[in-house]
Amino acid sequence: MEPLQAYKVHIAIKEHFYSKYDQEKWPYAFKQKYKEGKAINIPNSVFESKIGMPGMFEMVCDKWKRPEFIAVSVANAITGDRKCGMPYGINCHQVFKEWIARRDRIGYTFGQDLDKIINADRYLMSTDNEHPIEIRLLLGKHITMESVVILNEIRPFLEDYIKDLIIGDTCLLIKRYSPFVKEMCNTKKLHLKHETLINNIAS
């Protein structure tokens, strides 16, 4: 990547997770704009005029290739970091390291998290709540966001809560994370492997 290309990727990821664009209305926006940054129109003169940006993104280009930089940005975005890791210091690197660890054991962790969902009363003060147990466990850091994404792909439930005043932003963040998680694992295989547990959750 060139520094301007890296900056466009940064803007694309940031807008994908934190803008209010309609994914259903613009189904190709994710791939063409929000993932690859191809449709981000930022003149080089504008980029060069941003103090500190050219140097920062030159460092990005020296350190990461495009796929890895996208992963770094996504890993930080899903923590609630609206700058998606920028300025790419120690905290950003630690978040990315933890994300890689989760990615590499995503299938195993999904099975463990399903068990926690079924036995939610061990982790939550009360299960008598109008919000999904999966989201409450996620917010309590008992299960991973990747597991919630996978479960929502298998039996969708997030859409009903996108406009909820308390958990709406979290549900939207999970939904925006979905295309990345689908590249990390085979949802159908996980569904077949854990079908009994998933059916128990649905019942």
Describe the structure.
This protein is 63% helix and 0% strand. With 203 residues, it is an all-alpha fold. The mean pLDDT is 89.
SSE order and pairing:
Elements: H1 3-18, H2 29-35, H3 44-48, H4 53-63, H5 66-77, H6 90-104, H7 106-118, H8 133-139, H9 145-154, H10 168-184, H11 187-193, H12 195-202
Helix pairs in contact: 1-2, 1-4, 1-5, 5-6, 7-12, 9-10
Q: How would you summarize what this structure contains?
A:
By secondary structure, the protein is mostly helical.
Return residue spans where pLDDT drops below 50 for at least 5 consecutive residues: none
Distance between the termini: 49 Å
Beta-strand segment tally: 0
Total individual domains: 2
The main sheet comes to: none
- Strand fraction equals under 5%
Mean pLDDT: 89
> Which structural category fits the helices and strands?
mainly alpha
Q: Which overall shape is indicated by the principal axes computed on the Cα atoms?
A: elongated
Compressed to H and E, one letter per element, the order equals HHHHHHHHHHHH
Fold-level CATH name of the largest domain: Helicase, Ruva Protein, domain 3
CATH architecture of the largest domain: Orthogonal Bundle
Radius of gyration: 18 Å
Quickly count the helices.
12
CATH class value of the largest domain: Mainly Alpha
Helix content: 55-70%
Label this structure with key terms.
single chain, 203 residues, mainly alpha, Helicase, Ruva Protein, domain 3, 2 domains, 0% strand, elongated
